[in-house]
Amino acid sequence: MLDLPAIVADVRRGMIPAHVYNDPEIFALERDRLFARAWVYVAHESEIPAPGDYVVRRVLADSFIVARDEAGTVRVMFNMCLHKGMQVCRAELGNASHFRCPYHAWTYRNDGRLAGVPFHGEAYGGEDGFARTGQSLLPAPSADSYNGLIFISLDPDAPPLRRWLGDFSFYLDLYTRQTPAGLELRGPQRWRVKANWKIGAENFAGDSYHTPHTHASVVDIGLFREPKASKRKEGALYLAGPGAGTTYKLPPGGTFAEQLAYVGYPPELITAMASAWSAGQRRLVADDGFMVSAATLFPNLSFVHNWPQIDEAGTVAPFISLRQWQPVSERETEILSWFAVDASAQESFKRDSYKAYLMCFGSSGMFEQDDVENWVSITDMAAGSMARRLLLNSRMGLTSEGKPIKPPMAAFSGPGVAYQGFGEFNQRHWLSQWADHLEGAGAAAGSAS
Amino acid sequence: MTGGRPLPYGDPAHQDAHQFLVEEAALLDAGDFQGWLDLLTADIRYVMPVRVTTARGAGFDSLADMGHFDEDLYALRKRVQRLATDHAWTEDPPSRTRHFVSNVRTFAVGQAELRVESALLLFRSRGDTREADLLSAGRTDLLRWTEAGYRLARREILVDESVLRTQNLAIFL
User: Fold this and answer.
1) Min distance A257 CA to chain B CA atoms (Å)
2) For residue range A362-408, what is the model confidence (pLDDT) as tens digits?
3) B40-51 and B149-159: which strand pairing?
4) Which residues of chain B neighbour A214 with C-beta distances below 8 Å?
5) Which helix (H) or strand (E) holds B24?
6) CATH (domain of B104)
7) Which domains does chain A possess?
8) What is the pTM of this model?
9) Cβ within 8 Å, pair A220-B85
10) ipTM
């Protein structure tokens, strides 16, 4: 039924078969070949700061307890009792020294080890019938963290996380390590939308082209200082390792401190950012004049950074959001959207930044409202027969021969490849990794296209 | 927000509060968001915490530091201004909404304020092919008496789902 080689070939030349955005066969392949292997974000360490703190997160249908054990080690455990398969923890967050299964009361320490089996002697004849020793909730096959971001892979042979992140770490740091204190996350807001999960991931990876139109209303109401589209079309797009993102062009001629002040960062945070970031990271802001905006780390973790005016006086406050496009089915996605702020920032800045976030992104955000309307509509349209005859043109930025209409930027201080202006390089980069996985090749160390 | 002296249903202040909520719902369902803004005090605080699933005995079931809304008048005014532009795609065509308000309880607070609890069932329909959404919530409001009548000074919305089943909150509860 599904002609996967033809689909992948079309995707690789930037012509996307429309039905991939609402196709149960494609979704089954994504489950079995992509989410069964890829590194997937589950939580940030700041969400579980104290021993016993836990959150419950999913990778598709698989529920995991992400807990900090009594020794302070982060554990990621499959949330299914070893005995009859009951979901061991049914809250989504809390603090617990032990997790007790409601069915037969098998009890696990918060590091996953089985601590108690009722009537062990009478029912099993003690250790001979059932050896408790060495029994543990199944750990995530691979787990690691970077800047407090906890990732797991269902593949025990996943490549080391840092190697896989590769050059994208440079950009990831700009969102997640503004100072050595790192981020603190709040939330997430969670809501379900009738949209395919890929659309949001692609959008955040590189769709600067939608901003002037989809988000015209937030410019209409004066939420930003900059006139319509100006900071977008001069922005740079970059792709690096398994990630890609967009930037805004800052006003010309500022120093590092002046540029960050323009974006709304307070002096003490600017000083800390100057020492936390590498020379290249500082040059990207100061000399190149680019500030990170949206980005996606393959497959389904996105970032956004923007700086609206949060009051009548025109106070500008920047915010960071992490968001995950959690697939529910080929036609439904649960969005998890966190507000993130540097943990060392002053409370007044955190308050302003939180307000900026709520106005722009998340379940009520004025940007996100219009995005989701589009994505639901695309998913609706992709379900039928005609969508199987339509190839969506995702070749923006390429000539008919497949060459960039203008060369990559020669002077760009970040790693990877960067282009200035509009283009769908990043979406093709994301889709190329998607194609790798669906073909069964996977992306061992971050494939570059 | 808790406390206050419970008012019997026959109390005129309770009837004023109930009528305020019903008239407010009529404005929202008619899409008269500017008219709705006029019902708010200048120091309005409009909050909707994220509801979470926690164990019985955890001591909390919503997040203290994260909401779906945490708005002052500036933020609410921007949202209303946006809906009035020609580019607020998510509400063009607009949702058909119906705010069902019930279980109204009124408590007198001081001389000039009423604390009002109500239940809200919000029906939202979009387009012709999509299933409609329902949002169920409890609301606790602070109504303040002004020269123009009662005005809403504070609203806390306790939504009954931890995962919202509506595509966004381009609506007011």
Assistant:
1) 29
2) 999 999 888 898 999 999 999 999 999 999 999 999 999 999 999 99
3) parallel
4) 89
5) helix B12-29
6) 3.10.450.50
7) 40-146 (2.102.10.10), 166-438 (3.90.380.10)
8) 0.96
9) yes
10) 0.97
